[in-house]
Design brief:
Strand 3, helix 5 and strand 4 form a beta-alpha-beta unit. The longest helix has 27 residues. With 338 residues, the chain is of the alpha/beta class. It has 15 helices and 13 strands. The chain is elongated and about 90 Å long.
């Protein structure tokens, strides 16, 4: 029987205090996000539309903790199909303003909206008619009043017991940036393949590899007719180095597969007595082999091969039985899908 979960009263005083603080922070963050979600209005959609219309990049900027949040928002936008770049507001006043063009849009973050370092960015944007989307909590601030679209954050108390360290405020600010990125992603119809193209490394890139990215195709697909003699089938298998030959009928449709295992089984149990090399492909093949589709995730194909204890799958298009390629389990393992 599992031991009962300890209550706060049964824990040492320091552990009880730690858990209480953690739960207070998380609860306040959750409450802030709920209030933010309920307060969203047409200004959010206006911001998305303005960002979508930008012919250049989304230039994201903020100072202090807002700047850290701004960097993450810029990274999220870029990785979801909206080119974005973080510009430090203080550095912008010393030359980095040159990174901003008239085709860009400024996404400026400031909780109080009176961050002095943002003033030069606001002036530059007004002079060159660069649109501004502002995220802040003070509707009467310089930033919010200067913006073309204002995204107001709820004035929620910070979880810091002194009410000073940005906690709830940075959480809701970050969440609103994520919401903008995902809304833009959906408006653009950003696809998993496009996402994969921007995440070539790491587990994200590997998870989105398609069968078509790994399969052997064209002249590398080992095929034989049903009536092909096994001597020629063995030569095709040896030259292909995939451990299999696909068997097709006169219409070119896949009807079976000959593998190393099929050859071993028939060689050991040759009831005809004439030797396996004197038989036809249709006599030795396994009929109705399992297949993969070119747009299928390679991880799914690997899971199927692992489950069935097989090492290759022929790849067929959705509307055809003609083989397009072969994917081997070793191809999946080399791609890091294990």
């Amino acid at each position: 029987m599992a031991p009962a979960k300890a209550s706060l009263h049964s824990l040492p005083s320091d552990a009880a205090g730690d858990l209480a603080a953690a739960r207070r922070v998380l609860t306040m963050a959750s409450q802030g996000l709920t209030v933010l979600a309920e307060a969203l209005n047409g200004d959010f959609s206006r911001a998305v539309g303005l960002m979508l219309a930008a012919k250049g990049r989304i230039i994201v900027s903020g100072m202090g903790k807002s700047g850290i949040v701004a960097r993450k928002i810029a990274a999220t936008l870029s990785s979801t199909g909206t080119p974005a770049y973080f510009v430090h507001p203080a550095e912008a006043s010393h030359g980095d303003m040159g990174a901003i063009t008239r085709q860009d849009l400024l996404l400026l973050l400031s909780w109080g909206g009176e961050t002095a370092e943002l003033s030069d960015l606001i002036t530059y944007a007004k002079r060159h008619r660069i649109p501004i989307v502002a995220i802040g909590a003070n509707p009467d601030s310089t930033l919010i009043k200067a913006a073309d679209v204002q995204l107001l954050l709820p004035r929620m108390p910070e979880a810091c017991p002194m009410g000073l360290a940005p906690t709830t405020s940075t959480t809701v600010m970050q969440a609103l940036g994520d919401a903008l990125a995902i809304a833009l992603m959906e408006r653009k119809g950003f696809s998993p393949d496009q996402y994969r193209d921007l995440h070539l490394g790491g587990s994200l890139g590997r998870a989105l590899i398609r069968v078509s990215d790994l399969m052997h195709s064209g002249a590398d697909v080992p095929l034989a007719r049903e009536t092909t003699g096994m001597r020629d089938v063995l030569l095709t298998m040896a030259s292909g180095r995939l451990g299999c030959v696909g068997v097709v009928n006169d219409a070119g449709s896949l009807v079976g597969i000959v593998t190393d295992g099929d050859i071993r089984r028939h060689a050991l149990d040759d009831s005809s007595g004439g030797g396996i090399e004197n038989r036809k492909a249709a006599e030795v093949m396994t009929a109705g082999p399992k297949i993969a589709r070119p747009d299928q995730l390679a991880a799914e194909a690997l899971a199927l091969m692992t489950e069935l204890k097989i090492t290759q799958l022929f790849v067929l298009a959705e509307d055809s039985r003609s083989p397009l390629g072969v994917v081997h389990i070793h191809d999946c393992l080399r791609a890091g899908l294990a």
